[in-house]
Structure formats: C-alpha cells, structure tokens
Automatic annotation (TrEMBL):
Protein's UniProt name: Mercuric reductase
Keywords: NAD
Family note: Belongs to the class-I pyridine nucleotide-disulfide oxidoreductase family.
Coiled-coil blocks: none
Signal sequence residues: none
Gene Ontology BP terms: 2-oxoglutarate metabolic process
Gene3D superfamilies, sorted: 3.30.390.30
Record-level Gene Ontology MF annotations: dihydrolipoyl dehydrogenase (NADH) activity; flavin adenine dinucleotide binding
Ranges of residues in domain Pyridine nucleotide-disulphide oxidoreductase dimerisation: 14-82
C-alpha cells in the first residue's frame, strides 16, 4: 500500500494435495533440513497408533516429524492419510 516492494516468505505455509490418500505438510522435509545445515532426527508414526484413527477405523497412513537433533525443535510435519 505504501509503494514499498515486499517479498513473501512461503517457507512456513502449510500445503495439501487433495488426492487419495491426501498429503499435507508444513515446514521442511528431512532432505531440505540437511541441505540447510541442520542435523535432524525424523520419526514416523503409523496411524494405527493414533487413537482418533482407531476410533474412526481409518488407520491407513502416517505422520512424519522432522526435528532438529539436540534441541528437538520441530522443523517439519508431513501427513499421508485417507481422511475419509
């Protein structure tokens, strides 16, 4: 509005692909984290261990967390699930 040029940083913008199964993510992948100089730890949680998925009887999918090694700072989250 003031005429100044600005750039947007889409780095933290969540993203989703509406397919079957649906794919959603926010933040960095493990490959991106390593490329940016982070030492990272990743954990994958199958939906069969998520109580809500068990109640819905929809355990096909997974959640992947990418965290900075040492601090545990969350760098990225990725989900693949039917979402039905």
């Amino acid at each position: 509005l003031d005429g100044a040029e600005r750039t947007l940083d889409y780095h933290h913008l969540p993203r989703v692909t509406f397919t079957t199964p649906a794919i959603a993510a926010a933040g960095l992948t493990d490959a991106q984290a390593v490329a940016q100089g982070f030492a990272c730890d990743c954990r994958i949680l199958p939906l069969e261990y998520v109580p809500r998925a068990l109640v819905n009887r929809d355990t096909h999918g997974l959640i992947k967390l990418v965290a900075e090694r040492g601090t545990g700072k969350l760098l990225g989250v990725h989900v693949i699930a039917d979402g039905g």
